[in-house]
Amino acid sequence: ILLLLRNPKDVATSFYHFSNGMSPIPSYDTWDDFFVAFMTKKMPWGCYFEYLSKWNKYAADENVMTITYEELKENPVLGVKNIAAFFGISLSEKELQSVVERSSFQSMKENSQKTHGAFGNILFRKGGISDWKNLFSEDQNEKMDKAFEEHIGGTKLGIKLKYEVYCKA
Predict the structure, then answer these.
(1) What pTM value is reported for the model?
(2) 149: domain CATH number?
């Protein structure tokens, strides 16, 4: 099992834009309204922190590889090598480069109309890291940090996320 994690602040930011672009799910008039819903567990697919907490009990299993979106953005070649090794897949240098190129956010965005139809533009917005800084107030940032610590701060997944997101930033 490959478990992909992402900075909860960027998850919230991405989901805010996604939910406002998808008519079947609730949209929000303002970022502040969305933030309250996100922090009070009123998301259509549940609470991200609870999701991480549930996965944490499997994080040490030998059949689970945990990687962060931030790791993959920082060094996609190493990320793909590690994923291939975990699954026992041998890749030539040419195959490795092909996977890295074809799985880049830019490539997926460019092909999104073919692969995801009308949803492509909604699913593939920016693909960056730290876009949350464009939405979060200082108070919201502090509330998110506190919730992170309360839910998963000292867990294996929490420590991994904290290192990849906060220590390398």
Answers:
(1) 0.84
(2) 3.40.50.300
